[in-house]
């Protein structure tokens, strides 16, 4: 393992390459500190070549090493002292959300971006102050960015829709699925206060609703309106986000919601529905906590240096190599904590790439989705609350029972 780290690092001083190291153990950070120290000493001496462990390599004077971190995060490793002394700390300030939202709205094609950006940031500020405090509620920069991207997609698909209506729909579609039932009326009232003259008409999906009703009847469930609404919300969420966390207690209907949507898509494709969004779904479910990290994401044999794929990486590799247009969902059904979900950072962000320990990168396809089915998010850090969309299911909202 340490030889592979050294092999990767030795290319940095001689090229414009960029290398990102995330969530490494304290022993690995100590080794990296020795490597950085060697490069730093060579730069202080203005050398063009230097001895890097067992070989001599060239040194580019433009080499730079940076560390970004949030101290105190769950599962984070503190930097060892021999690495800290090589770096100078730089403090960051809170960004101007209104200005960033204004620029992004202009970039997405909104002409009234200045006013809409002020109303949007005000909405998020009021929501963070007035709604109940929950682990999975997020009103930070990542949440703002995801809403703006969704608003841009809606505007491009419906160019004749008024801009304020587009933004309201994006904010509602992004936030309502994760809110608890008692917070939804308050959130809607805040929107009404900020946009008093805007009347939003909910978009209808009659063919999907009909398919959901048919699947509910086939599975012997009841047509509870709140359950049908949650299935539709899950579809809307997965249209715009690559990762979705389905959160709720046992027997709240998390699995029923997911499987009902899958079967509805399969039914509509069998009927040859003209909408290309409705494709057959291939669903793979695994429990990440019943196997080790090596069995989940793969490992390098320390003796033979051969790579063996883990269960999760094998499923993602197979899905990514498929040329079909069918939807492919991977569901991690089990507790989410900082120990294993850190490997999913680049999967859930804009990169949509799984980075393995052997240096391989698996680029995932747009028709793929990553789902997490969890009971709570008590052990999840802030980063992993903001990368995927949170989709909350409550027993009081989704009442699914067998017919007698």
> Which descriptor suits the 3D outline?
globular
Task: Give the strand content.
Answer: 5-15%
* SS-based class: alpha/beta
What percentage of residues falls in helices of 4 or more residues?
Answer: 40-55%
The first-to-last residue Cα distance is 59 Å
What would the average pLDDT be, to the nearest integer?
81
What is the total tally of β strands? 11
* Number of H/I helices: 16
Describe this structure in words.
By secondary structure, the chain is an alpha/beta fold. 44% of the residues lie in helices and 12% in strands. The protein has helices at 2-9, 26-44, 81-84, 97-107, 113-130, 141-157, 163-175, 184-194, 206-218, 225-240, 254-270, 293-297, 311-321, 338-341, 345-348, 382-386; strands spanning 49-52, 55-58, 243-247, 281-286, 299-300, 307-308, 327-333, 353-355, 361-363, 368-374, 389-392. The strands form 4 sheets. The chain has a 5-stranded parallel β-sheet with strand order 4-7-10-3-11, with helices on both faces. Strands 1-2 form a two-stranded antiparallel sheet. A hairpin with a 2-residue loop joins strand 1 and strand 2 (55-58). The radius of gyration is 24 Å and the shape is globular. 29% of the residues are buried.
Question: What are the salient characteristics of this protein?
Answer:
404 residues; alpha/beta; five-stranded parallel beta sheet; 11 strands
Short overview:
This protein is of the alpha/beta class and 404 residues long. The protein is 44% helix and 12% strand. The protein contains 16 helices and eleven strands.
């Amino acid at each position: 393992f340490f030889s592979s780290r050294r092999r990767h690092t030795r290319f940095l001083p001689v090229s414009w390459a960029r290398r990102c190291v995330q969530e490494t153990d304290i022993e690995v950070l100590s080794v990296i500190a020795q490597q950085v120290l060697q490069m730093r000493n060579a730069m202080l001496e203005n050398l063009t070549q230097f001895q890097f462990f067992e070989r001599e390599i060239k040194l580019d004077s433009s080499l730079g090493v940076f560390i970004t971190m949030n101290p105190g995060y769950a599962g984070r490793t503190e930097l060892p002292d021999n690495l800290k002394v090589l770096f100078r700390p730089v403090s960051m300030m809170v960004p101007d959300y209104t200005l960033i939202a204004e620029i992004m709205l202009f970039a997405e094609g909104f002409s009234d971006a200045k006013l809409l950006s002020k109303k949007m940031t005000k909405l998020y500020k009021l929501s963070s102050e007035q709604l109940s405090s929950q682990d999975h509620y997020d009103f930070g920069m990542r949440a703002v960015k995801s809403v703006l991207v969704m608003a841009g997609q809606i505007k491009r698909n419906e160019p004749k829709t008024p801009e304020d209506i587009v933004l309201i729909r994006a904010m509602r579609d992004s936030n309502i699925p994760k809110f608890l039932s008692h917070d939804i009326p308050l959130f809607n009232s805040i929107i009404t206060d900020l946009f008093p003259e805007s009347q939003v008409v909910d978009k209808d999906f009659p063919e999907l609703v009909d398919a959901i009703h048919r699947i509910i009847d086939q599975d012997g469930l009841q047509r509870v309106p709140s359950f049908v609404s949650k299935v539709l919300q899950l579809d809307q969420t997965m249209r715009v986000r690559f990762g979705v966390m389905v959160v709720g207690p046992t027997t709240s209907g998390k699995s029923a919601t997911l499987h009902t949507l899958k079967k509805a898509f399969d039914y509509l494709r069998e009927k040859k529905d003209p909408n290309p969004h409705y494709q057959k779904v291939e669903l793979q479910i695994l429990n990440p906590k019943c196997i080790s990290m090596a069995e989940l994401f793969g490992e390098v044999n320390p003796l033979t240096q051969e790579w063996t794929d883990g269960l999760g990486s094998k499923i993602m590799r197979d899905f990514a190599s498929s040329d079909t247009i069918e939807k492919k969902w991977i569901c991690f059904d089990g507790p989410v904590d900082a120990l294993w979900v850190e490997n999913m950072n680049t999967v859930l962000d804009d990169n949509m790439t799984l980075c393995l320990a052997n240096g391989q990168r698996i680029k995932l396809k747009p028709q793929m989705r990553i789902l997490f089915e969890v009971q709570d998010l008590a052990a999840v850090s802030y980063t992993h609350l903001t990368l995927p969309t949170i989709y909350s299911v409550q027993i009081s909202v989704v009442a699914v029972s067998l017919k007698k």
